[in-house]
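User: I'm writing a short methods note and want a consistent example. For Biotin-dependent carboxyltransferase family protein, I'll paste the sequence; you return only the structure tokens, no commentary, since I'll be parsing the reply automatically.
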Amino acid sequence: MTETNHVGFRVERAGPLALLQDAGRFGVRRLGVTQGGPADLHGWAWANRLAGNPWGAAALEVTFGGLTLKAQRDLTIAVAGADLGVTLDNKPLPLWQPVKVGEGQTLCFGSPMNGLRAYLAVAGGFSAEPVLGSVSCVSREELGGFDGHGSKLAEGDRLTVSDKAGQSIKPTQAPDIDRIDYRTPATLALLPGAQVSDFTGASLYAAFNQAWQVDDRADRMGVRLTGPRLECRLGAMISEGIGLGAVQVPPDGQPIALLNDRQTIGGYPRLGALTPLSAARLAQCLPGQEVRLSAISSEHALMSHRRFRHCFAT
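Assistant:
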């Protein structure tokens, strides 16, 4: 049977930043192309799971809110991640569970109440033409999204959804333990990196024993942390490949945790890399929020990630 696509929503108000994201664009960093994908992997995965979609389905990442959509057909949706004060026909929309939306109903995302990024998934998944194997929207590189050119949503856009069936068995809601309160201080697991031994002892002690604040210089490329000044004995470095969650320390001694839309190479020394779930947690932090770094072994990090992925195995 041939899969067909239909218009699911019309954009009535675009808001500051709403982007289409599937699991990401992989195998292309050698071309200088970054991965994209959901900044909060946890919230994105749960939205898709609750909508009955398999891993990798495209969902809408809504940052800061301000988005208004009108349903063009009957749909089943799920919203997970941040609480952006979402309403359906002016009534609060339940989060972290599937919801039926009728043709003509209006879905509105307000402003951040708990977290920064919400994920809207629709049963069957949003549909768009893949670019380099993914529909993930990376605006800086003008790749992906509904138009294939990395454009954020604009008023009047029509969002297409697939008619392929979702999973026959899906949970009625996410467990309480997975509904994160993003307002609480976050502890971010970090895998120590190749240059960690080049930082002074006092800097390493401060890095893992003092609190950091999320700076207002933060986007999908990276998040700057402010706190104690870290000193590294290394001089100039040859640029290296940069993975998700890499924590670079530039000459000012204030670390930068790199996220999904990061550059592909960098030449600053690194403390290490946040685990994918810790990078996801950081992506939900508002400026001024407190975070702490906690060193983790590769064995424990892998075990934790496998447990997470097992929840979404089909």
